[in-house]
Structures are given as structure tokens and as C-alpha cells.
């Protein structure tokens, strides 16, 4: 059945529920803006096609499970529907109606809902009952919501207690999706305030009428025998595309319906579906725990795929094709499948198509499946194992990104994960997740993280090899560790072995790679020196941290180094790039002007500051830089080195800043590099060479 209907008619005698296989509320500002502008710009005499709303009437046994709703169904002939498609638009209309109610209540705080009228016959009590909830007329009055989510969905409680303002909330779990609900409520509240300020109450009431009477939904109710899961998977919502993680959840629930009663009785089928829902509930909770910086669904799904199944050299969406089209394909459950038929190719394959096919075959040959062959029938236990792994892994995925929020994590492990996030984990993230998931003792995990950090620094920061160097080996190691086919000690050996290619036979590091990198940065056409090295900020921060360890007073935050280039003045050239001060001209008078940039860009001349600094002060003399700077009103403009970062304080101990001081401090920093990353340069001459001061 399909027909165009207004919101007024849509909500007559209906209860809507977002089923468990659906994602939460995903609309953000751009979609809200489109919705609002469609509404406010619609002439009152015209209708607006809002979109398709696909519903499925819930069976009587499903309805009876929902005790809070059953009285409406039994006594008032309501029907309950699952929202298969269109939930984003429907949720948005409900939030806008609630925002309208909130606005009217705030405007007339002394009145009750029944006394606040939006027209001659329509008051807030009627609006609440028509669109939001009805209250059962018993002693312990409780609300039955006309729109909501499946039970145990974090969004359900948030919608009731934070959006619909039901009292006695208790603790509410918040996720990325609940943040979207809150933001939508705030967005519409601000828009309504602006509309009221410009057009008064008449403008507000006109908008409400357009929303409830002029916005038309194409209501489509599918029949019971229709395959609801396939319908959901193949529909396209206006707005935000379903993530791969959301599609996979729907697919797995769908697969539970395909097993025969011999393999899965109803109790097992329900249990399996609950397992899937709980796994996705946990995953979405973890991905959205840091609501200001939620983690990407598909990044997690791809990393888990690498850890659980295989790594392919193919890029793009290879992982979701594998999960949906191969591993969790209905064909692996169907008892009756198509007969293989050889078909004639319409034309000869192009060379690029042949190469692509060879790449796919190479990938399949390189990394065979660990959890069963695609030629085998997919058992229900294989789905359960995968779901349980996904659930457990989501916790460690979050902890790898935000160790400071991890529950019960040892401070030493937090520190190591912080380091890995600062230096950039790159392709090691799945391996880190696998190590966190491993039951090895803490010290073993710490050693592994230390080895990964050292490998990244030596290989990708000093030697600047391509970012995919040995990626397949360590992607596969993540899977082998998770499958207990590899130990943490063996992973450490792999890291040390692969790093050994960058060392000389005598055990010293081959600094020629680093030298050639720096040589380009010290060229006449570049002249940035160490300032242009992409490992500089991490290196100087680690040096600062080593000084901090003795004082235990943190003076520099890593986030200060992540500001935009416009604001980032957190690494200073002590001997400035424009040395027009008499002090600098005297101290560097023996250096040819065309060679000054070697000293300016040398490692020993670069200093980590404790905060932003006015660029006009960077040319001050060394003596002035060591002291705090004040304006004419005696307001401090900036700290001096003497009360800045630990690195600044150390530099302030120098009597003067000269070419010799730059050389001396540069050697000190290279000595720190040797100690911190357990390396040894060939000799002192090799280190001198890396300072680029032998002009």
C-alpha cells in the first residue's frame, strides 16, 4: 500500500518503532539546514514531498512483548509499525515538534499545556498526545511514546529523558547518535527563536501548520511475506548514506532468518539476534564515547576485518565487498543455489582488467581466510564468533585512540599509547588493537608498544621510507596474534628484524637515509633545515617529556602542537630567521650571511615553547628572550625562556647564544636520540655531519 499522507494523518492510531537493525539518528547540520529551509520557504498554499516512509506492521506476538504499548493497541485499536526506511526524516519532524513545544512552554511558563493554544481549537496537550505520547489513565501514570527506538537502544532513553523531558532519568548512555539528537533539538530551538523574533507568533503557527499538514510522506506498508531485511539494505535514504557497519548489522540479522529450525530453533534464533544487537550496541557506544570526536564506523570495521579475516593489498571498499558478498553472503546458507554456467565473454578483456583480476587473485593467494573457507557453508557458530570478536574489539579500538578515557588501564600503558598516537600509528592500529585484546601480561604489551614506537620513529621519521613498508606483514601479524598463532615476543622479533635493514654491520644506525633527507631541506632552494623535518615536533616533545619526568610538572601540551599553521608558533628559531637585531649581528659576525640559514635550521637552534608567542618578539636578543616581556601597561605579553617549558628553562642557562652553543645543543639532542630510541650513530663525526654546520 502506498499513498501520500500528512503528518497529522500519519500519526493517527499508529505507534512507530525504529527496529534493532537500524542505525541511530545520523542527520547533522547540513541535513537539518535542508529540512528547515524546505519548510520555511514552502508557501502555505502548496505541499512538499518529504520522501518515502516504508513501514512494516508488527506481528501480534511482537506487539505483546511491548507491554507499555499494548494497552493502546488493545483498548484504542492502535497498530505498531517498524520504520524500515525514512527514520531520519521522521525523527527530525518529531524533534522539531518537541522543540516547538519547548519554545511555547518557555514563552508561557505560568500556564499548563492545556491552556497554551496554537489555534482556536489546538493546544499543546493535544499536540503532545497526537505526536509524542499518550499517558495511561492509571494510578501510576506512565507514558507510551508514539515514536521511539527498540528497547535497550541508548537512543531510546536519550530521546525519552533528554528530548521528551520524561522525569527521573538516572544515568543516560550518550553516543555519537545521541549527540546528533541533542544537536537537532538545539538547532531547531535556535531557528524557532529567530523565526519568532522576525515573524512573531503568526510565523511560528504558520510553520507548525505547514509541517503537520503540507509536508507529505509517501507512506508504503510492506506485506508480512516481503523480505524486510533485503528491503532495508537496498533502499537509499535522503541525507546520509548507511555506513558499512550499519549494513553489516542488518545483513547478519537477516542471515539468522535463513537457517532451518533444525540448525536454529526459535530460542537460538532470538539469542543470536540479541548477541548481534548487544555487539552493535557496544560498538556504537565505544565509537561514540568521545562525543566531540567520534570514531569512524568503517575505519573500525575495516581494522577488525584485517585482524579477524585477512589483509588485501586492494584499496578502497575491498573489505566490505568481502564481508557482504563473500563471508556473510546468503548463498553460503541457502540449501538451493544456482548451477554454475560458463558464459561466453562478449569481447576480449582489456589489459587493465586482466591486471586487476591478477591483483585480486594475488591477494586471495597471499592471505587465505583464517576463519573458514568461502566454499564452506556458513555456520551459525561462525557468525556468533565473529560478532563476539567485534564486540570485544570495539573496546580496545576506542582505548587505542583515547587511552586517557580507558577504564582501569595502567598509567604506563596509557603513556605508551599516548606516544603511539602522537607519532602516528599508521597501519599499526589493527595490531595495537590485537595486542590490547591479548591476554599477555602488562609488561609484554608495554614492550610490544615500545618496539612499535621505535620502529615507526626509525623507519618512517628518520629514514622516511614509503608508508606501506612491510604493512602486509604487520597486518597479518595482527590477525595471527588474535588467532593465537603468534606471540607478542615473536611480533617484537619481527619489528626488530625489519628495522635491522637500516643498521650497519657493526650495529650502528645507517644515518645516510636521514642525511639525504636533511640535505634536501638544507638546500639553497629550501633552507628549512630540521624545521621542515616531519619528525621534529614529536622528537622535541619527547625531549621535553624527558626533562619533565624529573620535575613532574607538565608545561607543554601536545594539542598545542596540532594547531593550524597560522596559529602554530610552538617551535622557535632561537637564532631568528631575520637576525636584524645588533645582538645577533655581533654573535654571528664570523658566519657568511649566505650560510646563516644552516645555523637557523640546525637541530640545536630549534626550541619547543610552552605556548604561542607574538611573532614580533622572535627577533629579540637572546638576553631579552630569556626574560618575560611586558607591554606599556605592565601586562605580560609572553613568558621568557626562564619561566617557559622545561626545554626553554634549559636553554636559558646558556650565557649567550652563539654558533658554538647551537652546535653543543645539537649534539646534546642527538645524544638524547641515541638513548631514547636505543640506537648508536657510527661515531661523533657522523653526528656532526647531521648538524650541517661544517660549512
TrEMBL record:
Pfam families: GmrSD_C (PF07510), GmrSD_N (PF03235). Residues 9-252 form the GmrSD restriction endonucleases N-terminal domain. This is DUF262 domain-containing protein. Residues 525-670 form the GmrSD restriction endonucleases C-terminal domain. It comes from Planococcus lenghuensis.
Amino acid at each position: 500500500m502506498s499513498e501520500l499522507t500528512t503528518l497529522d494523518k500519519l500519526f493517527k492510531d499508529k505507534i512507530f518503532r525504529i527496529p534493532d537493525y537500524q542505525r541511530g539518528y545520523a542527520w547533522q547540520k547540513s541535513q537539518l539546514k535542508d529540512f528547515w529551509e524546505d519548510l520555511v520557504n514552502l508557501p502555505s498554499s502548496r505541499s512538499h514531498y518529504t520522501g518515502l516512509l516504508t513501514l512494516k506492521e508488527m506481528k501480534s506476538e511482537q506487539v505483546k512483548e511491548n507491554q507499555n504499548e499494548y494497552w493502546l493497541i488493545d483498548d484504542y485499536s492502535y497498530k505498531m509499525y517498524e520504520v524500515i526506511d525514512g527514520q531520519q526524516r521522521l525523527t527530525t519532524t518529531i524533534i522539531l515538534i518537541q522543540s516547538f513545544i519547548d519554545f511555547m512552554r518557555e514563552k508561557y511558563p505560568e500556564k499548563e499545556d492545556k491552556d497554551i493554544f496554537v489555534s482556536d481549537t489546538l493546544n499543546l496537550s493535544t499536540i503532545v498526545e497526537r505526536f509524542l505520547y499518550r499517558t495511561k489513565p492509571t494510578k501510576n501514570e506512565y507514558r507510551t511514546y508514539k515514536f521511539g527506538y527498540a528497547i535497550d537502544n541508548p537512543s531510546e532513553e536519550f530521546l525519552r529523558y533528554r528530548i521528551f523531558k520524561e522525569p527521573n532519568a538516572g544515568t543516560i548512555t550518550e553516543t555519537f547518535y545521541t549527540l546528533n539528537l541533542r544537536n537537532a533539538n538545539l538547532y531547531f530551538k535556535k531557528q524557532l527563536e529567530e523565526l519568532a523574533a522576525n515573524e512573531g507568533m503568526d510565523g511560528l503557527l504558520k510553520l507548525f501548520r505547514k509541517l503537520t499538514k503540507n509536508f507529505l510522506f509517501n507512506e508504503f506498508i510492506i506485506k508480512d511475506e516481503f523480505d524486510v531485511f533485503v528491503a532495508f539494505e537496498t533502499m537509499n535514504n535522503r541525507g546520509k548514506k548507511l555506513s558499512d557497519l550499519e549494513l553489516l548489522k542488518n545483513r547478519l540479522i537477516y542471515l539468522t532468518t535463513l537457517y532451518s529450525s533444525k540448525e536454529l530453533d526459535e530460542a537460538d534464533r532470538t539469542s543470536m539476534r540479541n548477541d548481534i544487537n548487544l555487539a552493535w550496541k557496544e560498538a556504537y557506544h565505544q565509537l561514540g564515547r568521545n562525543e566531540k570526536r567520534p570514531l569512524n564506523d568503517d575505519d573500525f570495521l575495516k581494522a577488525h576485518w584485517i585482524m579477524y579475516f585477512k589483509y588485501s593489498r586492494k584499496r578502497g571498499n575491498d573489505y566490505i565487498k568481502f564481508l557482504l558478498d563473500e563471508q556473510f553472503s546468503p548463498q553460503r546458507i541457502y540449501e538451493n543455489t544456482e548451477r554454475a554456467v560458463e558464459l561466453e565473454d562478449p569481447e576480449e578483456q582489456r589489459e587493465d582488467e586482466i591486471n586487476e583480476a591478477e591483483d585480486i587473485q594475488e591477494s586471495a593467494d597471499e592471505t587465505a581466510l583464517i576463519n573458514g573457507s568461502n566454499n564452506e557453508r556458513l555456520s551459525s557458530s561462525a557468525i556468533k564468533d565473529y560478532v563476539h570478536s567485534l564486540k570485544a574489539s570495539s573496546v580496545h579500538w576506542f582505548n587505542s585512540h583515547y587511552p586517557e578515557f580507558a577504564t582501569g588501564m595502567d598509567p604506563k600503558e596509557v603513556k605508551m599509547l599516548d606516544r603511539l598516537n602522537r607519532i602516528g600509528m599508521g597501519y599499526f592500529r589493527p595490531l595495537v588493537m590485537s595486542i590490547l585484546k591479548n591476554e599477555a601480561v602488562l609488561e609484554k604489551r608495554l614492550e610490544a608498544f615500545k618496539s612499535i614506537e621505535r620502529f615507526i620513529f626509525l623507519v618512517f621519521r628518520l629514514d622516511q621510507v614509503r608508508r606501506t613498508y612491510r604493512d602486509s606483514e604487520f597486518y597479518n601479524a595482527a590477525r595471527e596474534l588474535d588467532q593465537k598463532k603468534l606471540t607478542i615476543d615473536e611480533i617484537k622479533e619481527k619489528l626488530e628484524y625489519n628495522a635491522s635493514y637500516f643498521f650497519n654491520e657493526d650495529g650502528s644506525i645507517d644515518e645516510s637515509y636521514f642525511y639525504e633527507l636533511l640535505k634536501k631541506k638544507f638546500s639553497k632552494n629550501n633552507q628549512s633545515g630540521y624545521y621542515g623535518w616531519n619528525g621534529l615536533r614529536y622528537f622535541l616533545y619527547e625531549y621535553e617529556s624527558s626533562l619533565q619526568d624529573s620535575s613532574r610538572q607538565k608545561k607543554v601540551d601536545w594539542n598545542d602542537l596540532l594547531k593550524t599553521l597560522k596559529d602554530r608558533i610552538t617551535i622557535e628559531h632561537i637564532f631568528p630567521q631575520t637576525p636584524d637585531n645588533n645582538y645577533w649581528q655581533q654573535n654571528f659576525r664570523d658566519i657568511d650571511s649566505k650560510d646563516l640559514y644552516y645555523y637557523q635550521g640546525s637541530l640545536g637552534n630549534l626550541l619547543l615553547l610552552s605556548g604561542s608567542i607574538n611573532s614580533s618578539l622572535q627577533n629579540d636578543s637572546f638576553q631579552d628572550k630569556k626574560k618575560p616581556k611586558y607591554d606599556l601597561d605592565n601586562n605580560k605579553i609572553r613568558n621568557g625562556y626562564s619561566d617557559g617549558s622545561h626545554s626553554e628553562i634549559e636553554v636559558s642557562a646558556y650565557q649567550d647564544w652563539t654558533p658554538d652553543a647551537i652546535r653543543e645543543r645539537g649534539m646534546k639532542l642527538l645524544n638524547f636520540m641515541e638513548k631514547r630510541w636505543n640506537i648508536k650513530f657510527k661515531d661523533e663525526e657522523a653526528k656532526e655531519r647531521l648538524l650541517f654546520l661544517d660549512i
